[in-house]
Amino acid sequence: MTYTKEYFIRFVEIFSKYLAENKEYLTQLDAAIGDGDHGINMDRGAKAALERLKSTNPSSPGEVLRTVGMAMLSSVGGAAGPLYGTAFIKMGMSFGKKPEITDEELIRGLRQALDGIKNLGKAEVGEKTMVDVWEPVVKFLEECAKEGKTLSDVCAEVIALAEERMKATIPMQAKKGRASYLGERSIGHQDPGATSSYFFFKSLCEAIGGR
Ligand code: ADP
Ligand code: MG
Is the pLDDT of residue 128 over 60? Predict the structure, then answer.
């Protein structure tokens, strides 16, 4: 099975829908341990990305993702803008100009995105950030790829794992970003960026149905 640019556009549309529906929720999570703008930031970024896709009509999966990343970089702001922007751009760059992406290439692209997030933000697992969702999911997908499984084969597990890792940020103390200023008071709250990352992977999976 391969992934065309239509798949990636559909993924961005679904991600955008989740971010719009959960704008208040993400904002409330960020209000508890940050400055309450994560939902607003991400919703604005996703809308800007969709508009940019419409006006530029990119010709390949890589170009779709690079376009989304650039739109997020220039419109999201905060910590999440550069982090998500980098993730989309790195993933897009790893696809080059290929018209269709295989499962192996998709997973390699997600690894590039994760490495981009970590290089920029310097967060490790356990520090209550989006990395707490990204890293275990990417590692799981890499294991699946070794066994010859596709994303489609393991979608239910990916969504469940992302949700579990998102919830696992609740008892963590934030060590990176704005929430880290709270010290121990950041304990007991779910990380907003881990939550938007759960929606990212859920959208990636759900986009398969509409391919
Ligand atoms: P800001 O913190 O600038 O207001 P957002 O509210 O949009 O930005 O995003 C906050 C989220 O960004 C956090 O919940 C966390 O998941 C993520 N984040 C913050 N700093 C880092 C970092 N250094 N590495 C990875 N993720 C980070
Ligand atoms: Mg914030």
Answer: yes
Ligand nearest to the CA of 180: 1
Q: Name the burial class of residue 210, with classes exposed (0-12), middle (13-18) and buried (19+) by CB atoms within 10 angstroms of its CB.
A: exposed
Distance of CA 48 to the CA centre of its chain: 16
Angle between helix 61-75 and 38-56 (nearest 10): 140
Average pLDDT (151-171) is 97
Nearest Cα residue to atom 27 of ligand 1: 129
Q: Which ligand is nearest to the CA of 79?
A: 1
Domains delineated in the chain: 2-210 (1.25.40.340)
Cβ–ligand 1 distance for 39 under 6 Å, the answer no
Burial of 156 (0-12, 13-18, 19+ CB in 10 A): exposed
Residue from 118, 121, 120 nearest 138 by CA:
118
Can you read off the two tokens belonging to residue 187? 């304990």
Write the CA distances from 36 to 41, 79, 191, 197, integer angstroms. 9, 12, 12, 17
Give dist(CA 182, CA 73) in Å, integer.
26
User: Does this model's pTM top 0.85?
Assistant: yes
Strands (E), the chain: 2-3, 101-102
Give me the half-sphere count of Cα atoms (radius 13 Å) on the Cβ side of residue 170: 5
Which residues line ion ligand 2, judged by CB < 5 Å? 30, 34-35, 37-38
